[in-house]
Amino acid sequence: MKIHEYQAKQLLREYDVPVPRGYLAETPEQARELARDIGSRVAIKAQIHAGGRGKGGGIRLADSPQEAFQAAQGLIGRRLVTAQTGAPGQLVRAVLVEEVLEIVKELYLSLLVDRSRQRECIVGLASAAGGMDIEEAAGADPGRIVQVAINPGTGFSPFHGRKLAYGLGLERSLGAAFSDLLGRLYQLFIAKDVSLLEINPLVITRDNKLLALDAKIIFDDDGLYRHPELTGWRDFAEEDPLEVEALKAGLSYIKLEGNVGCMVNGAGLAMTTMDLIKLAGGEPANFLDVGGGASAEKIEKAFRILTADPKVKVVLVNIFGGILRCDRVATGIIEAVGKANLSLPMVVRLQGTNREEGSRMLKESGLTFHVAQGLYEAAELAVRLVS
């Protein structure tokens, strides 16, 4: 689950991580009044779930309340296009009105789960090349990235902070403050089941203080049940409508860019099915796991979500009937196709419990299905039907 910058900074304040003064505005009038209250030069920052706002024109500076009004007016209600949003952009519904600081240096700092080490650990990343071009800087010179692994069994220690501070070339006067800040970020990371916490940039001000000028936080969805206080922060308007509908229906669905729609039971089988589609020369349109105990109604909802994607040109149903019997799947498929009057080609592979009954129901339904027996046979057939 992603949250907005203003929400991330609210959370940082709770852990005593210093951030600039800033307030949310949903109208240009509110932005003008907030700028007047701050009483100095302000930044008007579009609040969307995408990076690259600076280059996309989503961060504007204002020297007066009236300029803040005009900047907010130019953002709120408009679609902001950045390198991460793609051509359609994302609608800006609110802006963060924040004081502008006198910055001496920009740094990059993040905490994340490092899967490359194949064990649970936290990695702090820091670079003296903070700011908008961190990706380019890291790619051009990976040596500028300093890493330190933090074993969750022992937790954060001051030497982790000292190592990063030394790698960044920070002055000794900032070393203790930097280590303390990193320790607080680690506490937040662990306590809230965060999967990514990014501060870009972490700035050194003219009065030699460290502040998180921007913040990005992503939570592990599987840990949200432990944090009911966070679930209200989810902004469904920023997420893909089909993924939101699937979430509410209890389905595991991720929209992709291909044209072969997949409906599978079990995450492992779903991943294998997608791999086989790629192997056959096609592109999967989604990941969709209906689970082991899906009802006919749930399968029907899955089909509705699957086929609502205009890119889908063929549907591949791959079911191994264990807990989810093949006849129940067949019932859901027949009901979904009948109600929606689907005209898309459909490849169905059923194996496992009540496979014969499920196959018989499909054949006697009066509807057209392409039945496959093998895994690769089903994927190859689906790819062929696209063209």
Polypeptide structure, described:
By secondary structure, the protein is an alpha+beta fold. The protein has 3 domains: 21-99, ATP-grasp fold, A domain (Dna Ligase, domain 1, 2-Layer Sandwich), CATH 3.30.1490.20; 103-231, D-amino Acid Aminotransferase, Chain A, domain 1 (2-Layer Sandwich), CATH 3.30.470.20; 241-386, Succinyl-CoA synthetase domains (Rossmann fold, 3-Layer(aba) Sandwich), CATH 3.40.50.261. The protein is 36% helix and 25% strand. The chain has helices at residues 5-14, 28-38, 65-73, 134-140, 158-168, 172-191, 228-231, 241-248, 267-279, 296-307, 326-340, 355-363, 375-386; strands at residues 22-25, 42-46, 59-62, 79-80, 90-91, 95-99, 103-113, 122-127, 145-150, 194-205, 210-212, 215-219, 252-255, 260-264, 286-289, 314-321, 346-352, 370-371. Strands 7, 8, 9, 10, 11 and 12 form a 6-stranded antiparallel beta sheet that branches. Strands 1-6-2-3 form a 4-stranded antiparallel beta sheet, with helices on one face. The chain has a 4-stranded parallel beta sheet with strand order 14-16-17-18, sandwiched between helices. Strand 10 and strand 11 (210-212) form a beta hairpin. Helix 5 packs across helix 6 (172-191), helix 8 (241-248) runs antiparallel to helix 10 and helix 11 (326-340) packs parallel to helix 12. The longest helix has 20 residues, at 172-191. The chain is elongated, with a radius of gyration of 25 Å. The mean pLDDT is 88.
